């Protein structure tokens, strides 16, 4: 299965976003980190900004909502055309109902798990989702170190997806480099979010390096 590389524009230059979106056109999806300063202690952008990103991006949007009350806000991101919308399990009042709404609008539905959140309670809900995001750092900031202790959870999700014969993407986010991407792939990830490791160099080159690190 081909690995998907989703650069996170959290590490882009916010006043040159259109330029930086163009620079990652060879990636699969652009990962857009929405933070509300409540669910996480950091603030990025909201629907208006994400709508403009959607207008100018050469590749579709993978929206990661690190916000309280996604039940209220997530459908708006699906309506503006995001390819996938992922909300945090810890923040949603009714994850299944929300996933169904997102799918009905036409977006892929994703559920994200912080490092301390166990996957156990969500395994039976896997058919309701198109992707699971395993956070490999505490959400809120780019440039942190990959937490290898999240790998058993990723592995258990891969086993559950395989045992149930599902096509659910397993995404990792945080501290992904050409070294840690190999560890995550070995433990079952197929979709890789990378912020600083893409934008600290020439993005197209960095995307190619990450891709070749996990090429079968
Ligand atoms: C962190 C965000 C990540 C972040 C990853 O809360 O969800 O998407 O951009 O950044 P790096 O790749 O620098 O760890
Ligand atoms: Zn993210």
UniProtKB/TrEMBL annotation:
<feature type="binding site">
    <location>
        <position position="64"/>
    </location>
    <ligand>
        <name>a divalent metal cation</name>
    </ligand>
</feature>
<feature type="binding site">
    <location>
        <position position="64"/>
    </location>
    <ligand>
        <name>substrate</name>
    </ligand>
</feature>
<dbReference type="InterPro" id="IPR000056">
    <property type="entry name" value="Ribul_P_3_epim-like"/>
</dbReference>
<dbReference type="InterPro" id="IPR026019">
    <property type="entry name" value="Ribul_P_3_epim"/>
</dbReference>
<keyword id="KW-0479">Metal-binding</keyword>
<dbReference type="InterPro" id="IPR011060">
    <property type="entry name" value="RibuloseP-bd_barrel"/>
</dbReference>
<comment type="pathway">
    <text>Carbohydrate degradation.</text>
</comment>
<feature type="binding site">
    <location>
        <begin position="195"/>
        <end position="196"/>
    </location>
    <ligand>
        <name>substrate</name>
    </ligand>
</feature>
<keyword id="KW-0862">Zinc</keyword>
<dbReference type="GO" id="GO:0046872">
    <property type="term" value="F:metal ion binding"/>
</dbReference>
<keyword id="KW-0464">Manganese</keyword>
<dbReference type="GO" id="GO:0019323">
    <property type="term" value="P:pentose catabolic process"/>
</dbReference>
<feature type="binding site">
    <location>
        <position position="173"/>
    </location>
    <ligand>
        <name>a divalent metal cation</name>
    </ligand>
</feature>
<dbReference type="InterPro" id="IPR013785">
    <property type="entry name" value="Aldolase_TIM"/>
</dbReference>
<dbReference type="Pfam" id="PF00834">
    <property type="entry name" value="Ribul_P_3_epim"/>
</dbReference>
<dbReference type="GO" id="GO:0006098">
    <property type="term" value="P:pentose-phosphate shunt"/>
</dbReference>
<feature type="binding site">
    <location>
        <position position="8"/>
    </location>
    <ligand>
        <name>substrate</name>
    </ligand>
</feature>
<keyword id="KW-0119">Carbohydrate metabolism</keyword>
<keyword id="KW-0413">Isomerase</keyword>
<comment type="similarity">
    <text>Belongs to the ribulose-phosphate 3-epimerase family.</text>
</comment>
<comment type="function">
    <text>Catalyzes the reversible epimerization of D-ribulose 5-phosphate to D-xylulose 5-phosphate.</text>
</comment>
<dbReference type="GO" id="GO:0005737">
    <property type="term" value="C:cytoplasm"/>
</dbReference>
<feature type="binding site">
    <location>
        <position position="31"/>
    </location>
    <ligand>
        <name>a divalent metal cation</name>
    </ligand>
</feature>
<feature type="binding site">
    <location>
        <position position="33"/>
    </location>
    <ligand>
        <name>a divalent metal cation</name>
    </ligand>
</feature>
<feature type="active site" description="Proton acceptor">
    <location>
        <position position="33"/>
    </location>
</feature>
<feature type="binding site">
    <location>
        <position position="175"/>
    </location>
    <ligand>
        <name>substrate</name>
    </ligand>
</feature>
<protein>
    <recommendedName>
        <fullName>Ribulose-phosphate 3-epimerase</fullName>
        <ecNumber>5.1.3.1</ecNumber>
    </recommendedName>
</protein>
<feature type="binding site">
    <location>
        <begin position="140"/>
        <end position="143"/>
    </location>
    <ligand>
        <name>substrate</name>
    </ligand>
</feature>
<feature type="binding site">
    <location>
        <begin position="173"/>
        <end position="175"/>
    </location>
    <ligand>
        <name>substrate</name>
    </ligand>
</feature>
<keyword id="KW-0170">Cobalt</keyword>
<dbReference type="GO" id="GO:0004750">
    <property type="term" value="F:D-ribulose-phosphate 3-epimerase activity"/>
</dbReference>
<feature type="active site" description="Proton donor">
    <location>
        <position position="173"/>
    </location>
</feature>
């Amino acid at each position: 299965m081909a690995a998907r590389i989703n650069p996170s524009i959290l590490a882009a230059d916010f006043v040159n976003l259109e330029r930086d979106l163009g620079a990652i056109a060879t990636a699969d999806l652009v990962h857009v980190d929405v933070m509300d300063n409540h669910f996480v202690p950091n603030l990025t952008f909201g629907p208006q900004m994400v709508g403009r990103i959607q207008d100018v991006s050469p590749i579709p949007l993978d929206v990661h909502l690190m916000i309280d009350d996604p039940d209220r806000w997530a459908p708006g991101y699906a309506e503006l055309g995001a390819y996938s919308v992922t909300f945090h399990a810890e923040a949603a009042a009714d994850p299944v109902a929300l996933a169904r709404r997102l799918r009905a609008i036409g977006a892929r539905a994703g559920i994200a798990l912080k490092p301390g959140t166990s996957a156990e309670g969500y395994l039976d809900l896997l058919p309701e989702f198109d992707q699971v995001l395993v956070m490999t750092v505490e959400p809120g900031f780019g440039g942190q170190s990959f937490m290898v202790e999240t790998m058993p959870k990723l592995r258990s999700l891969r086993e559950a997806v395989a045992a149930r014969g599902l096509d659910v993407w397993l995404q990792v986010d945080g501290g992904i480099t050409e070294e840690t991407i190999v560890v995550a792939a070995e433990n079952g990830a197929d979709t890789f979010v990378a912020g600083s490791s893409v934008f600290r160099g020439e993005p197209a080159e960095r995307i190619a390096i990450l891709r070749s690190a996990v090429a079968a």
